[in-house]
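Please check this protein record:
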Amino acid sequence: MKKLILTTCLALTAGAICAQKAPRIILADELSSVEKPSSLMPSLKDEGVTIWSDDFSDESTWVVDNSGQSGLDYGWNINAESDGWYSTAGISSSSGGNYAELVNGDPFDGTQALDVVYTLTTANPIDVITLAGTNQVTLEFEQFGARFNDLQQILYSTDGVTFNPIGDNLDQSVLSASGGSAYDNPDLKQINLGTVISETSAPIWLQFSWTTNYPASADNPNVWVTYGWYIDDVRIVTNPGNDLQVTDTYWGSEGLNYFQIPITQVAPIDFEAALFNGGNNTQTNVTLNADINAGAFSGTSDPVSIDPLGYDTISLSTQFTPDALGDYTIVQSISTDSTDDVPVNNEISNITFEVVNYIYARDINAVGGSTSNGEDGFEAGNLFDIWADQTLKAIDIRIPGGTNGAQLGVEFYVKLYSLDSEGEFIYENESDPLILTQQMQNSSFTVPLLSPVDLFANTTYLAVVGSYEAGFRVSTAGNSDPQTSFFQDLADGTWYYQTGTPFVRMNFDPTIGVEENSTSFQVGNVFPNPTSNGANLRVVMNNAQNMTMLITDLSGRIVSSKALDLKQGENIIPVDSKNLTSGLYTITLEGNASSVSRKMTIR
């Protein structure tokens, strides 16, 4: 089962992950302060006849409900000036003049209102069927803004009381310090109304609504932050004759795509496209076509026909399997018997990736932001599918420096998990803790694991970088599909998915030397960690030996001391935490003039 475009999540253990992991709420201090520059509206071919339009020049044609809030700092307002904290110039719409703007306080002042739903509704219904003579029409409007933890929806009603959603901006990336971007200024939003109203439909009201996308966390001010939403030039137009639209695309091997693939982990790659026929005519002989490295490989899908307002998903009939080291560029296109009246909405961006010797990378290598967790520790990383048995010795990471970078002197580590049949992350191994130096920042570097880990074919692993301390950050590069890159808040042990791709990679270079932490014994890390119900420590002894295990708190005070009689080989030592309060502790093993320390967090 692929991670397909529409509703599936992640192959192998997808259902469990989707059920147990939730989107991460972005913190207010992760707001991006860079405003998207204005860009000209792209030229479009004739899309039909405009049957209704409104440019907000007369504010009485709209009804505003600002949920009991007042003033220009809250809810919808209609004027020619930007009143929010984010954009100084508002929207660069085609008509200029007045526009509608959504505001909800200033997150830097902490003035956002909670528990609100702001709506902007047409004052009078629109008789689409009388005006157009058909239900084959499209709602269009120009917009600007950015998405954070908010829900920006478009709704309609046939009675002016009950409104049903017909669109939203959840397809836009989240703009934060982790990456993402604002909308184009302006961005043309199109919603085909033929899918929701019938040929005998009553007149309709249109509504723009704003609220949080996280109602279960409504008491958290971060979920009520908005950059603002700007709308202008709303219109309804008749649909063109031929308008085949690409609504989503997918490429990858059974759910995940990579931008660097070790030659040992190459697997067949699928290419797919989800299509919608927004025109009035049936589209025949519709195919997806792919050309790789200028003719080195060419593939096409089986042809299909798509009726007006119909959907279909098509994929290459032959998978592509890279067979050599080097760069690969994939050019994709959609073809049909008809000449498309709106070709701009069925173009597919080119794909580039590289087959290399040792590096397995989900990130695109072009750093766009970073991930942090305020004052709390965290772990962040990516899923990797293993297709052939191989030994992993290290994980590569990148940590940002500079004004908005990680703090020098912070302690961090890398860690590896596997996924079990229930979709839970199972600890496998990690590195010794490292102290961040300036030389480590702003470039990729390799962190060896405590010992080599044998990875097994047809298994999914999670590689992460983390820290128990405040001030740590990891670079992000590119975007991940939901449920494929993850973030753990170590304060409460909760896993979230994140859409900014952490710069965390597997490194299979066999020449990497894994340093042993002692000539006489090797110590793994505490597991599970964090913990609230006890933990274990794995120690491998070259020879039987008596040792002492000390547990100290952050002040250095010894809170527990225990004598150990360890046998040759593997020893699993239980760590009793029932008398320890929440916090960070250090476990130290001492013996024969050597000692090793590990961190443990009690929740």
Remarks:
- Residues 14-20 form the longest helix (7 residues).
